[in-house]
From TrEMBL:
Name by which UniProt lists this protein: UDP-galactopyranose mutase
Gene that this polypeptide is encoded by: glf
UniProt organism field: Rubellimicrobium rubrum
Lineage: Bacteria, Pseudomonadati, Pseudomonadota, Alphaproteobacteria, Rhodobacterales
Residue ranges constituting the UDP-galactopyranose mutase C-terminal domain according to the UniProt record: 516-712
GO molecular function terms noted in the UniProt entry: flavin adenine dinucleotide binding; UDP-galactopyranose mutase activity
Family the entry assigns: Belongs to the UDP-galactopyranose/dTDP-fucopyranose mutase family.
């Protein structure tokens, strides 16, 4: 807060202090060495909690009115303060969650409710460690772990040797010290055990008592309780100790703690002995200078080892110092400050649902057209842009739908959450050319897609990887080789791999096939995998590594402001007219042009002359939920045949949007509806070839895209196809124009 106070006015609202007056008031406390001010509310002793909160809410309003200036950023260290500030019109709300307070002794029952309300309102959440981040991760969409920082220079004074504090002077060595609040988180039995086992060791417990009384403390001649000390005094105490202790009890209250004293002890150059607190083990457990002990006996041995270390600090301190170098308060402050600034920005730019112009024809008056394009998806829009910008052609783009972007269309729904109307579209490619081209119309937000499959009541990574195997079969495969050997034992070799069943069974055997592929594919395609071309399930690899990304392409990112915005920029050209909500087949003769680019279904263009080409469709159920997070990753697949949908998508993972609600989509495969997927099977290819032969006889039409060329293409492949098609066409046009001008001469 000292650091924040350099750029803003910082007012700290302390917990109320009872008073014997009959009116509530507040005192202003000024800290000598920085600009932070604190407010100390004084509340009549006999007032209820509710009266106290009401009075404080009123005081806060008065204070803000007096201060004037812009709206405040509200920063909460405890949800218990939420009722005091909830009503304030803030620029942003920060919840700095330092502990799982609800697990603490005597936690008030309303704490959980208040935390839920605060999490809903907060624009950004910080957690005071990694374990607590993991525990809260699914409750917020803009949550960031901040394991303890340390004021290195302050504690490093201890290494130089400071004068021994008066109350330590009479205590002989060796000294084992702890500082911190002494409450139910401290393993007092352990302290007693150590003191009893080693009467020649001195144990010093610095800190105030909380929630426990002096009568609860173990008493022995070699246990000392000097009481609480100020932050400024701590280095001197550390300097007088040989070993620093973290004798935490392993219980509910300590499950998520990330003790700041760990790096402080280390900065002071003391070896540390700790019980197995998760975040201590995780971040410091493999340092030579930190000993972790999970039984009283092991704790004694660890203290012996640490005492030995204290005599040869040069052996282990360099490693500690390398680690501490990254933990400065300055860098923590910089990251937090940036996140707060972003939160303020997000609140200011919060947007309402999109309102697209009513379906109709938007005309720029560039008729007669050189080219008319059916479809404003990737294929159509790119052709339009290239022909207009690259070749100066006058282009009309027609789409049946009242919007651009085809199946990649995204929009802000009623709640203001950016969703994909036609199911999740994740951009990934290995083609630099494709990225370069699209980057003319959009900036990007890096995003790596992850999918979990719900099987046997577990959520496991898809594509199958080592984690999937370990999770499904309760195995402990440690290496790629282990996993490869396991899969080889499962695999059922298929001599000639032709179908989507063959590919999978050949690689991973029937059980994994049935678990992850059979039901999903039957639902998705309405066909058994044995009836589908091998190319379909070949899209999903099997891995022996821990890589849990859905794609491994070199470029994985989402258009920063969404697909629709990218398309709008692509099509915003004086030579391009847009006719949305209009069917190509209903065009007036005046709208026609010598050349058509057709990106709708090819069989429809030819009036289904040889019968309809099979397509698979989907029905989407979009929902907005009154919570910030719904599931652990963007997409969860449901391979079980009994579940009617194939997957659920939560869009905020794709878009990075922060919003107090979240929108999700269920996908129900369907035989009827818009044609989304060409169905890859040999007989369908044969039928398509007949249409393709008709197409080849037509100089006046080019067929393009997923529907026009009946190919199960990803977006980047359609982009590549359109760019290549334009290049060929442009050459042809140059030759023609060249020929025409020669004739005119
Ligand atoms: P479309 O986007 O289908 O555009 C064709 C347009 O033509 C449509 O807007 C249609 O309304 C219009 N049209 C058709 N007939 C007519 C007519 N007679 N008159 C006027 N207009 C007409 N790809 C990825 O790379 N990553 C993904 O994660 C991904 N996820 C997908 C998820 C789903 C559910 C689906 C269905 C597809 C997904 N794809 C994904 C594929 C992606 O949608 C396509 O590759 C891409 O949209 C194809 O572009 P297109 O221009 O060929 O076709
Ligand atoms: N698939 C499956 N189980 C899954 C994921 C995919 O059986 O959990 C099969 C299914 O047949 C699917 C195909 O693999 O249609 C290709 O999956 P992909 O995610 O590439 O399909 P997309 O949704 O991108 O078209």
């Amino acid at each position: 807060m000292k650091r924040f106070a350099k750029g803003r006015r910082v007012i700290l609202w302390e917990e109320a202090i009872p008073t014997d007056h009959d009116k509530a008031y507040y005192e202003i406390h000024v800290f000598a060495d920085d600009k932070v001010r604190s407010i100390r509310p004084r509340i009549p002793r006999d007032w209820s909690a509710q009266q106290s909160e009401q009075a404080q809410a009123g005081m806060l309003d008065d204070l803000l009115a007096l201060q004037g200036g812009p709206k405040p950023v509200l920063w909460f260290y405890t949800p218990m303060m939420w009722p005091i500030g909830a009503h304030v019109a803030a620029d942003a709300v920060v919840y700095d969650c330092m502990d799982e307070l609800s697990h603490f002794k005597f936690a008030p029952p309303e704490l959980r409710e208040r935390e839920a309300a605060l999490l809903k309102a907060a624009d950004v959440v910080f957690t005071g460690g990694y374990s607590i981040y993991e525990a809260k991760r699914l409750q917020h969409d803009n949550i960031h772990p901040f394991p303890s920082s340390v004021d290195g220079a302050h504690f490093a004074q201890a290494r130089k040797g400071l004068p021994t504090p008066a109350d330590m002077a009479g205590i002989p060595g060796p000294r084992f010290g702890f500082y911190g609040v002494i409450d139910e988180r401290i393993d007092l039995t352990l302290i007693d055990h150590v003191a009893a086992a080693r009467p020649d060791w001195q144990i010093v417990m610095v800190g105030p008592l909380s929630k426990i009384g002096p009568e609860d403390l173990p008493r022995r001649p070699n246990i000392h309780y000097p009481g609480g000390k100020s932050y400024a005094e701590l280095p001197a105490y550390l300097s007088s100790w040989d070993v620093a202790l973290m004798p935490f009890a392993i219980n509910e209250a300590t499950r998520f703690i990330s003790p700041t004293k760990t790096p402080e002890y280390l900065a002071a150059g003391r070896p540390v002995v700790s019980t197995p607190i998760r975040d201590v083990v995780r971040h410091y457990g493999n340092l030579e200078g930190v000993k972790i002990a999970d039984t009283p006996e092991a704790f004694l041995q660890a203290c012996d080892a640490a005492l030995a270390l204290s005599k040869a600090p040069q052996a282990w301190r360099p490693e500690v110092d390398r680690m501490l170098a990254d933990l400065s308060w300055d860098s923590t402050f910089k990251r937090m400050d940036r996140l707060v600034a972003e939160a303020v920005q997000m609140r200011r730019s919060r947007r309402a649902p999109d309102r697209f112009a009513a379906p109709g024809i938007r005309r720029g008056g560039s008729r007669p057209y050189d080219v008319v394009i059916a479809g404003a998806g990737f294929a159509g829009a790119i052709m339009a842009e290239r022909l207009a910008e690259g070749s100066g052609k006058r282009v009309l783009v027609v789409d049946k739908r009242p919007h651009v972007a085809g199946n990649a269309y995204d929009l802000h729904d009623k709640a203001g959450v950016l969703i994909h109307q036609y199911g999740p579209h994740i951009f990934h490619t290995n083609s630099e050319q494709v990225v370069d081209y699209l980057s003319r119309f959009t900036a990007w937000r890096p995003y790596e897609h992850r999918v979990l499959a719900q099987v046997d009541g577990k959520l496991l990574p898809m594509p199958i990887n080592r984690t999937t195997l370990n999770g499904l079969y309760n195995l402990n495969l440690q290496s790629d080789e282990d996993a490869a050997a396991f899969l080889a034992a499962q695999a059922e070799p298929v001599e000639k791999i032709e179908t989507s069943r063959d590919v999978v069974v050949n690689a991973v055997g029937s059980h994994l096939y049935e678990t992850f592929f059979q039901g999903y594919t039957r639902k998705q395609w309405g066909l058994d995998p044995s009836e589908l071309d091998k190319s379909v399930t070949s899209r999903v690899p099997t891995r022996t590594s821990l890589d849990d990304r859905y794609f491994t392409d070199t470029f994985q990112a989402m258009p920063k402001e969404g697909f629709t915005r990218m398309f709008e920029r692509m099509l915003d050209h004086p030579n391009i007219d847009l006719a949305l909500g209009a069917d190509y087949h209903d065009l007036k003769p005046s709208d026609l042009a010598p050349l058509t680019v057709y990106t709708g279904p090819i069989d429809h263009f030819f009036d289904y002359r040889f019968g309809p080409l099979p397509y698979r469709s989907l029905q989407f159920r979009h929902e907005t939920l009154d919570q910030r997070r719904f599931q652990e990753v963007a997409v969860v697949n449901y391979p079980a045949e009994e579940v009617p949908y194939t997957r659920i998508t939560e869009y905020k993972y794709l878009t990075g949007q922060v919003h107090d609600q979240t929108s999700i989509t269920y996908e129900y495969p369907s035989a009827v509806g818009d044609p989304y997927y060409p169905i890859p099977r040999p007989e369908n290819q044969i039928l398509f070839k007949k249409y393709e032969a008709l197409a080849q006889q037509r100089d006046d039409v080019i067929f393009l895209g997923r529907l026009g060329t009946y190919r199960y293409y990803n977006m980047d492949q359609v982009v590549g196809q359109a760019l290549a098609t334009y290049r060929r066409l442009a050459e042809r046009m140059t030759v023609q124009t060249g020929a025409a001008s020669t004739a005119a001469e």
